[in-house]
């Protein structure tokens, strides 16, 4: 019997600036990824959130798990800025994380700058 296809969670260990975004994905570290991303201290992860889907606390669970290493979370909400729900803002604030929603393009640019400054930054960016 064959084992079948093993689907691995998309994960890049380490921190990397985003080189490009658009066409439903991102380019970083000489790789391309279709879909949304979480850019965390432990690495870059595929994130199963599409533009327009609710920004729930559950969707940000991995971010909350790494809160001790994050001071600022940039949230790229897609083409348009969407405010973060009060419940999500409160969950982040309770862990000492300042959250800043903006368009995905602005989040990518800000993340790259803060990463270069070696700040304790993370980003959750929805593919556009």
UniProtKB/TrEMBL annotation:
CDD domains membership: Mth938-like (cd00248)
InterPro entries, sorted: MTH938-like_sf (IPR036748), NDUFAF3/AAMDC (IPR007523)
Superkingdom in the source lineage: Bacteria
Protein name: Mth938-like domain-containing protein
Species classification: Bacteria, Pseudomonadati, Pseudomonadota, Alphaproteobacteria, Hyphomicrobiales
């Amino acid at each position: 019997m064959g084992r079948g296809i093993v689907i691995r969670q998309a994960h890049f260990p380490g921190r990397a600036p985003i080189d490009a975004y658009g066409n439903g994905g991102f380019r970083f570290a000489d790789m391309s990824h279709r879909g949304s991303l979480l850019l965390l201290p432990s690495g870059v992860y595929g994130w199963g959130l599409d533009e327009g889907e609710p920004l729930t606390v559950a969707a940000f669970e991995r971010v909350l798990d790494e809160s001790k290493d994050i001071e600022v979370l940039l949230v790229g909400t897609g083409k348009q800025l969407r405010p973060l729900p009060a419940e999500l803002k409160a969950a982040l604030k309770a862990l000492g994380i300042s959250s800043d929603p903006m368009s995905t393009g602005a989040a990518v640019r800000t993340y790259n700058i803060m990463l270069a400054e070696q700040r304790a930054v993370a980003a959750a960016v929805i593919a556009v």
